């Protein structure tokens, strides 16, 4: 859904410390206690030694990724008001560029490399030009905490002026270009809670609206006609929206009053309001209404109501009309309507065997929509769709000169999990497939997110090493839509874990083979994989847990933290006895026991505010004490990053993860352990 911050702030939690938790000393909210830092450094030294031993695996991977970089065709630029914008490598540096539509003359707006060079961690969030195109507002995270600072850069002098700190990455200018609308974060918890107007003349900021309920988060997104910002408060399963007039600065009353279980997401084009809402039924429908009747819900007109168990996932507005995206099972479709709400036609989003999604949408006037599609073995391509003529054509396709797609095979296999059929997407190189080829199995299974089988040269390099790469589309994800998600969340979280175990078990015998299974999961996927390791340690031959959420009950029992309550629906509510019992049964940290665990690499970021570093550190300490296995068990802490990896270090980190798992398949390296 539009601007939904549920996922963006999923797991922005810190863990409560139970009295019986012997490893609670590893939690240090200040992130400065010498005892803790010494422990983390000691484990880093141990990890570094192993990393040196497998450098013969990791360095060739990185070199291959460099050598096989694609000759990328043009990527669609973002079109806004007759200009196009893109972040590209330009003259040896990464920069934000602009040009007139149809022109090849480039203007450099921001040298991103120059700004990032000053910091060990750097993430550029949103950026926004004022109406005169002389001032550029930018949001930057320089700590990995996702607490952004906002500056305004004078494009003539390239001088920046600080405007705000401790805000999220959203940016919207007032129409007069003299102020910015920002979302303030709570200092202690980082909960986005207040819409604030900041003035460039250093006047005191004005708070326009505040979300007092700690179970709700605040965000906004621009309307298609750019006259409004849609200010949204949302809880785990409900939303409430208002309109911020970017000219007057006035904020409307709620369009619909908040009600448990009711979600609606609106957009504005000219004098009309459009909405995707479930206020009338269990599922969503697409509505329209004159803007003057926005709060009169009985006057909203139903434009499109999906059938055959399909569900509306999003919509886009253009001068030519509306485009509605629906999902039915694993298939997505585009539905087109004219400006009188009359149905025009529909088309599938993806070709058979591919995944696709709407990306890089042009602005309201452009009537351009772009579609990104690929498979595990087919390089990515862009299609451009004209929403006026409904013509769809190939815009560009990445070209890997040394890659031969015919040498690889991708397929979807189905596994049985307690009577439910679970899809698994996998790929391998045909001439490398043997009866003992190892399987690298990835899983996530939370927040209704679909783990798309992207084409990546990094994955292809694994296939070249004889690996079968697989993605388990377990319940709790969004592969088959909302019902699939609901079947693996909250008190049904165990379903996702059992699905992952079933996928691993079936893949050991894939194609009549006898295969080792290596598991990979990050964040909420770390919960999935770590829980599966507890329940079936002998099934797995190794695992990588990246910023894993593994201390579930402790974190969800920290009632002083506002985001805990918002995540009850996803992980369970420890205040309810039956739900607490379920949580205790799957919690990875609680269920570590004296058994033979496979080798595990655990990676954490010291500045992580979504999944604090101590979750992985405590898990590692307890694992090391209880396991009867020989390992290796490694903890790697990045002292300058948070939940996300700085793009400058992402390839080296990924190479280490893959090399760690590859090393476990090699007998000579195993013998050195």
TrEMBL record:
<dbReference type="InterPro" id="IPR002470">
    <property type="entry name" value="Peptidase_S9A"/>
</dbReference>
<dbReference type="InterPro" id="IPR001375">
    <property type="entry name" value="Peptidase_S9_cat"/>
</dbReference>
<keyword id="KW-0645">Protease</keyword>
<keyword id="KW-0720">Serine protease</keyword>
<dbReference type="InterPro" id="IPR051543">
    <property type="entry name" value="Serine_Peptidase_S9A"/>
</dbReference>
<feature type="domain" description="Peptidase S9A N-terminal">
    <location>
        <begin position="19"/>
        <end position="397"/>
    </location>
</feature>
<dbReference type="Pfam" id="PF02897">
    <property type="entry name" value="Peptidase_S9_N"/>
</dbReference>
<dbReference type="GO" id="GO:0004252">
    <property type="term" value="F:serine-type endopeptidase activity"/>
</dbReference>
<dbReference type="InterPro" id="IPR029058">
    <property type="entry name" value="AB_hydrolase_fold"/>
</dbReference>
<keyword id="KW-0732">Signal</keyword>
<dbReference type="Pfam" id="PF00326">
    <property type="entry name" value="Peptidase_S9"/>
</dbReference>
<feature type="signal peptide">
    <location>
        <begin position="1"/>
        <end position="19"/>
    </location>
</feature>
<keyword id="KW-0378">Hydrolase</keyword>
<dbReference type="GO" id="GO:0006508">
    <property type="term" value="P:proteolysis"/>
</dbReference>
<protein>
    <submittedName>
        <fullName>Protease</fullName>
    </submittedName>
</protein>
<feature type="domain" description="Peptidase S9 prolyl oligopeptidase catalytic">
    <location>
        <begin position="455"/>
        <end position="663"/>
    </location>
</feature>
<comment type="similarity">
    <text>Belongs to the peptidase S9A family.</text>
</comment>
<dbReference type="InterPro" id="IPR023302">
    <property type="entry name" value="Pept_S9A_N"/>
</dbReference>
């Amino acid at each position: 859904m539009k601007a939904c911050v549920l996922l963006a702030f999923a797991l922005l939690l810190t863990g409560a410390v139970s009295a019986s938790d012997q490893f609670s000393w590893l939690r240090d909210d200040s992130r400065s206690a010498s005892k803790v830092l010494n422990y983390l450094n000691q484990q880093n030294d141990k990890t570094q030694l192993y990393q040196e031993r497998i450098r013969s695996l990791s360095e060739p991977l990185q070199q291959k990724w460099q050598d096989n970089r694609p000759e990328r065709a043009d990527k669609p630029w973002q079109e806004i008001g007759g200009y196009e914008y893109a972040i590209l490598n330009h003259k040896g540096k990464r920069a934000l560029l602009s040009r007139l539509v149809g022109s090849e003359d480039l203007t450099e707006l921001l040298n991103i490399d120059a700004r990032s060079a000053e910091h060990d961690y750097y993430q550029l969030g949103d950026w926004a030009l004022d109406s005169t195109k002389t001032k550029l507002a930018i949001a930057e995270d320089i700590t990995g905490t996702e607490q952004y600072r906002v500056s305004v850069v004078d494009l003539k002098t390239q001088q920046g002026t600080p405007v705000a700190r401790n805000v999220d990455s959203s940016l919207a200018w007032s129409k007069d270009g003299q102020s910015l609308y920002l979302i303030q974060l709570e200092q202690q918890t980082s909960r986005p809670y207040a819409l604030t107007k900041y003035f460039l003349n250093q006047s005191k900021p004005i708070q326009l609206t505040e979300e007092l309920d700690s179970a709700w988060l605040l965000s906004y997104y621009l309307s298609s006609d750019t006259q409004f910002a849609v200010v949204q408060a949302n809880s785990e399963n409900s939303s409430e929206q208002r309109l911020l007039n970017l000219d007057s600065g006035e904020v409307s009353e709620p369009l619909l009053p908040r009600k448990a279980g009711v979600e609606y997401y609106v957009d504005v084009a000219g004098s009309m309001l459009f909405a995707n809402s479930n206020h009338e039924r269990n599922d969503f429908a697409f509505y329209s209404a004159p803007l003057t009747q926005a709060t009169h819900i009985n006057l909203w007109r139903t434009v499109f109501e999906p059938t055959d168990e399909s569900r509306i996932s999003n919509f886009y507005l253009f001068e030519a009309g509306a485009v509605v995206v629906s999902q039915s099972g694993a298939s997505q479709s585009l539905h087109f309507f004219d400006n009188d709400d009359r149905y025009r036609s529909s088309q599938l989003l993806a070709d058979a065997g591919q995944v696709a999604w709407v990306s890089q949408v042009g602005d309201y006037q452009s009537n351009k929509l772009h579609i990104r599609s690929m498979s595990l073995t087919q390089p990515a391509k862009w299609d451009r769709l004209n929403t006026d003529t409904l013509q769809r054509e190939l815009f560009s396709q990445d070209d890997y000169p040394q890659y031969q797609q015919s040498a690889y095979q991708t397929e979807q296999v189905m596994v049985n999990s307690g009577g439910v059929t679970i899809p698994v997407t996998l790929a391998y190189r045909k001439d490398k497939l043997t009866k003992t080829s190892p399987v690298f199995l990835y899983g996530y299974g939370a927040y209704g997110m679909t783990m798309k089988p992207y084409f990546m040269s990094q994955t292809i390099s694994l296939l070249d090493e004889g690996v079968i790469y697989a993605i388990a589309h377990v319940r709790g994800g969004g592969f088959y839509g909302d019902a699939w998600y609901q079947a693996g969340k909250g008190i049904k979280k165990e379903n996702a874990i059992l699905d992952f175990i079933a996928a691993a078990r079936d893949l050991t015998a894939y194609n009549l083979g006898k295969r080792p299974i290596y598991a990979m999961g990050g964040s909420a996927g770390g919960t999935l994989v770590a829980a599966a390791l507890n329940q079936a340690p002998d099934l797995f031959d190794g695992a990588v847990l990246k910023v894993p959420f593994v201390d579930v009950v402790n974190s969800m029992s920290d009632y002083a933290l506002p985001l805990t309550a918002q995540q009850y629906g996803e992980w369970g509510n420890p205040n309810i006895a039956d739900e607490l019992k379920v949580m205790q049964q799957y919690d990875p940290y609680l269920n570590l026991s004296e058994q033979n665990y496979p080798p595990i690499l655990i990676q954490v970021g010291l500045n992580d505010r979504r999944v604090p570093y101590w979750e992985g550190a405590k898990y590692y300490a307890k694992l090391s004490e209880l396991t009867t296995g020989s390992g290796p068990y490694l903890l790697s802490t990045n002292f300058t990053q948070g939940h996300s990896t700085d793009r400058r270090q992402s390839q080296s980190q990924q190479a280490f993860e893959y090399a760690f798992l590859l090393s476990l398949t090699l007998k000579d390296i195993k013998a050195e352990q």
